[in-house]
Amino acid sequence: MNRRIAWLLTLIILCPLLALAAPVAIMPEAEPFGADDDVLHLYVLDLVSADCMLLQYRGQNLLIDLGRARQFPKLHALLDSLSVREAAVFNSHPHGDHIGGIFKLTDVCNVSAFYTCFPRDETEPGSAQRPAMQHLDHAGVPVIRLEDGDKVPFDGVELAVHQHFTVPILNDRSAMLHLRFHEATLLLSADVSVAAQTFFSKRKGLSADIMKAPHHGVEPILGCFLRAVQPQYVFITHGSGDRRQTQGDLRRLGLPHHYATRGIIHLMTDGKRWVVEQMPKAGYTLSQPPGQSMEKTGNPLL
User: What is the separation, in whole angstroms, between the first and last Cα of the chain?
Assistant: First the structure.
């Protein structure tokens, strides 16, 4: 089938289903939430070729991946800006661009728990699991093993683990997180590649208003996976030229998207609607009360 026709058919299939989802609005046009609203926040750090996100709700903090060790100053700055002194950590998989920050995090933050979906002695090339486990043991941090179908504890929010653990490639075994907060949904797709995307395209319950592009957008998002998720908005945790196919595909589908490398992406929801904004690349401050509008970049959607 002609590629363009295939994408158009995907869009036709998606459109009726999007009406059932929580609407996603992009700042500065969107109305911000009020200081008294019950709002969940997700901050996507502006790292190159790495993932690090902070989920906040009612005083709870969950770091989802930690970027590279050398990128830790950016995570430290985010934690300081938001006065975060304690957080749990969920690690999608133990590659250095997702777990490297753990070695310095324990110096500046009380890590209440570390959730992993991999054995302590994971030996896949490129894995930093064993040194990370040794460091956590030395720091006295509880390490909790999760599996496909488990939930990450986070009061008021459902965080379901989805993992295809029978494939040989570590990226494809990385654990996705599906978030549900009232009517609002979000899928953090880790680094899943072709095999895992194909596998999960047949799994029910993965539809989401917002999706992180798999594997930093390096590889294309399969049409079958995109139809399973049905996102209204996609964010990409990188921004160089090798992501142009993903960007082109999203443009053809009319799906709004941002690159996190061009400024921290801040996602907010009250469970009924989403508001998305991108922070200025340099000199940003996150000292405003939760739910309030912050300074905008003024950049159009990419």
Answer: 28
pLDDT in tens, 42-78: 999 999 889 999 999 999 999 999 999 999 999 999 9
1 Cβ neighbours under 8 A, 6+ residues apart:
none
pLDDT of 299 > 50? The answer is no
Longest alpha-carbon distance in the chain = 56
Contacts for 36 with CB less than 8 Å, ≥ 6 apart: none
- What single string gives the DSSP state of each residue in the chain? --HHHHHHHHHHHHHHHHTTSPPEEETTTSPPPPTTS--EEEEE---SS--EEEEEETTEEEEEEE--GGGHHHHHHHHHHTT--EEEEEES--BHHHHTTHHHHHHHSEEEEEEESS-TT--STTB-HHHHHHHHHHHT--EEE--TT-B---TTSEEEEE--TTSSSTTTTPPEEEEEETTEEEEE-TT--HHHHHHHTT-TT---SEEEPGGGGSSPPPHHHHHHH--SEEEES--SGGGHHHHHHHHHHT--EEEGGGS-EEEEE-SS-EEEEE--SSS----SPTTS------PPP-
Give me the pLDDT at residue 292, please. 35
Question: Which pTM was predicted?
Answer: 0.87
Tell me how far apart the alpha carbons of residues 284 and 77 are, in angstroms, rounded to a whole number. Answer: 10
CA gyration radius, the chain: 18
Q: Is the pLDDT at 1 greater than 60, yes or no?
A: no
Instruction: Tell me: pLDDT of 19 over 70.
Output: no
The residue type found at 111 is V
What span, in angstroms and rounded, lies between the C-alpha atoms of 187 and 68?
A: 22
Chain mean pLDDT for the chain: 86
